[in-house]
From TrEMBL:
Belongs to the protein-tyrosine phosphatase family. Non-receptor class 4 subfamily. GO terms for cellular component: cytoplasm; nucleus. SUPFAM superfamilies: (Phosphotyrosine protein) phosphatases II (SSF52799). Residues 132-187 form the Tyrosine specific protein phosphatases domain. Gene3D superfamilies: Protein tyrosine phosphatase superfamily (3.90.190.10). Its EC number is 3.1.3.48. It comes from Hyalella azteca (Amphipod). This is protein-tyrosine-phosphatase. InterPro entries: Prot-tyrosine_phosphatase-like, PTN12/18/22, PTP_cat, Tyr_Pase_AS, Tyr_Pase_cat, Tyr_Pase_dom. Keywords: Hydrolase, Protein phosphatase. It comes from the Eukaryota.
Amino acid sequence: MTCVTGCDDDCDDAGAGGSRAYIACQGPLPHTLDDFWRMVVQCDVQVIVMASNETEGGKHKCECYWACEAGERRQFGEVGVSFVKSRQVCPDFLVRTLKITFPGDGGEAETRIVCQFHYSLWPDHGVPDSVKPLLAMVRLVRECQASETLPLLVHCSAGCGRTGTICAIDHVWTLLRTGVSWGVDTP
């Protein structure tokens, strides 16, 4: 498998102290689909959080990069993506379970399960109607991937507003949960 330029360095050096906690990116576009899935494989991503819809405000924002139905398999470069199951957790988000297949280091095919959390009711340039479903999703994301060393891939349409908010919520929640002092001075 051909490396994504700089991915290994980016995955190893992202964040403070070399943490591999997050990969924040824009939603995949038609010409970046293969690179997106190659990054998922190379950086050992097990959970993807999608905080956008394919179309928002009448504009195409993100390409469909997953298989949608039982038995469906889509190919993105050397990475095959198959639908396993989907569960609507609440009206705000659902969880898709996908199986990816890709060439391993020894040439043998490898498979991995990837969970995609799709938060669909957060408008671009807006706020969710309620914070409870968002917090519930972040909690479920961490139940699905408790590892702090594997990267959590988060994207919206542009990869900044909603993406950054989810990363910040998850990071602060982790600090609170672990009791780590995070150096905020208050008067």
